[in-house]
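Is this the right way to post structure tokens for a design question? Let me know if I should format differently. Anyway, here goes:
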């Protein structure tokens, strides 16, 4: 097990900035707004040969409202998992009563605590950190997380409090450093399937994540926009390894005015791009909205496998369910290959079937397709429905092979393929998907025109003229 380091403190003291600095990433959303982080965000850092797990948490306040209270509960869970705590305070604002309350809580836990005085840039360090000695948690460490100043010295001191590793762990760690990343990926690390859960605000994305995990891992509230960042959570289910990505709700651009929400939506879009399979949740009472259809198009255009979950089905009256099913069929004829499940994330109804479709979609999008099989399917499809003539000439499609996975990409070779219409391209994609029984994944078709052997010649002979010439030459020889 890696040592666990938790970052705690009041809102807006720079916890997420320090998290990004330690993980050398931009995984945590950062802005000059209190209460931005609400869920636990995990990442990995490294000091020398020593890796560790770092946990970003939401700000601790004395506000008793629902959202701040739920955020504090998330932080308390992180503190019970940690070996070392980085207690971040604001060197510019100085010591506050809330800082003192947090220090009292940390003292009761009995773990190693480092007081980190952030935002020290431009200040006299001795003067700015002097009052934090009153917390009774040792000498404060002055840093500027936004620039990385003082962070290396801080973490060098933190590592001295890590649990000692035995000799076998040291040898394994050293040997791993001499092996390639590809080798580690193929042998030591499980093949994690990344599943992004997306949708409009307040459709139940975080509730579904918690249901799949069997614990309250992310904050859930009726208030739309509760989730602001994209939170990655590992999950092992049926012997397979997954990474669930809970994302912020995506609204139409015309309704987005706050800068924070714009950044949240951008991170949600990036989560879709990085995912292997996307679960798109919609609210059963709202049906398929224009925004839902736009999100479906975006996911498929990115080439990601897709499963559709109609959530809050338990709130729909039985006499209205047939009407909603009919509406789904009417509005989604262009994604008839995408499995649709009616579920209740709150009660768990239909969630197992939903995840079986995730497995099927992953198997389809990552499947290896033999050239002989693809060529056979192509020839049969062309025989049943030949491509339309181009300038009075017949288009010949000769053979097909796989050009990539995630999504399955099929490359078709022939002549005049640049004249193939989009309608015929969709026809071929549908044939391949149906015969190969691919579910939940788009199929990309690429055409390549064979080079004309007579191109560049002066007055080249046609095949018919060449045969006639050969007969004449044969007659002359006789």
């Amino acid at each position: 097990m890696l040592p666990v380091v938790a970052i705690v403190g009041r809102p807006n003291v720079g916890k997420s900035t320090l998290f990004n600095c330690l993980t050398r990433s931009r995984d945590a959303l950062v802005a000059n707004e209190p209460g931005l982080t609400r869920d636990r965000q995990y990442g990995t850092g490294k000091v020398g040969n020593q890796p560790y797990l770092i946990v970003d948490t939401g700000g601790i306040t004395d506000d008793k409202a629902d959202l701040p209270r739920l955020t504090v509960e998330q932080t308390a869970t992180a503190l019970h998992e940690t070996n070392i705590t980085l207690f971040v305070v604001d060197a510019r604002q100085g010591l506050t009563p809330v800082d003192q309350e947090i220090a009292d809580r940390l003292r009761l836990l009995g773990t190693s605590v480092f007081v980190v005085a952030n935002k020290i840039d431009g200040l006299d360090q001795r003067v700015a950190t002097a009052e934090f000695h009153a917390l009774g948690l040792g000498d404060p460490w002055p840093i500027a997380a936004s620039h990385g100043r003082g962070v290396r010295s801080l973490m060098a001191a933190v590592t001295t409090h890590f649990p000692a590793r035995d000799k076998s762990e040291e040898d394994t760690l050293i040997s791993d450093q001499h092996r390639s990343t590809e080798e580690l990926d193929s042998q030591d690390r499980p093949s994690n399937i990344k599943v992004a859960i997306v949708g409009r605000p307040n459709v139940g994305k975080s509730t579904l994540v918690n249901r799949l995990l069997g614990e309250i891992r992310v904050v859930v509230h009726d208030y739309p926009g509760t989730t602001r960042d994209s939170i990655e959570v590992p999950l092992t289910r049926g012997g397979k390894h997954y990474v669930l990505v809970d994302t912020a709700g995506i609204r139409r651009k015309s309704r987005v005015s706050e800068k924070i929400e714009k950044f949240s939506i951008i991170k949600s879009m990036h989560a879709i791009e990085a995912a292997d399979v996307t679960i798109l949740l919609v609210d059963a009472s709202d049906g398929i909205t224009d925004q839902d259809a736009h999100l479906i198009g975006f996911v498929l255009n990115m080439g990601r496998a897709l499963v559709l979950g109609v959530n809050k089905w338990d709130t729909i009256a039985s006499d209205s369910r047939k009407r909603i099913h009919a509406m789904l069929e009417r509005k989604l004829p262009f994604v008839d290959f995408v499995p649709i499940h009616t579920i209740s994330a709150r009660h768990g109804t239909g969630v197992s079937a939903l995840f079986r479709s995730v497995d099927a979609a992953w198997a389809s999008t990552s499947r290896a397709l033999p050239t002989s099989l693809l060529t056979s399917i192509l020839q049969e499809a062309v025989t049943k429905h030949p491509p339309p003539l181009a300038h009075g000439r017949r288009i010949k499609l000769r053979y097909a092979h796989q050009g990539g996975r995630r999504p399955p990409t099929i490359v078709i070779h022939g002549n005049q393929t640049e004249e193939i219409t989009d309608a015929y391209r969709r026809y071929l994609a549908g044939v391949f998907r149906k015969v190969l029984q691919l579910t939940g994944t788009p199929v990309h078709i690429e055409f390549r025109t064979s080079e004309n052997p007579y191109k560049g010649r002066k007055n080249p002979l046609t095949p018919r003229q060449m045969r006639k010439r050969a007969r004449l030459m044969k007659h002359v020889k006789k």
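Format looks fine. Someone answered above. Worth noting: The longest strand covers residues 397-404. The chain has 15 helices and 15 strands.
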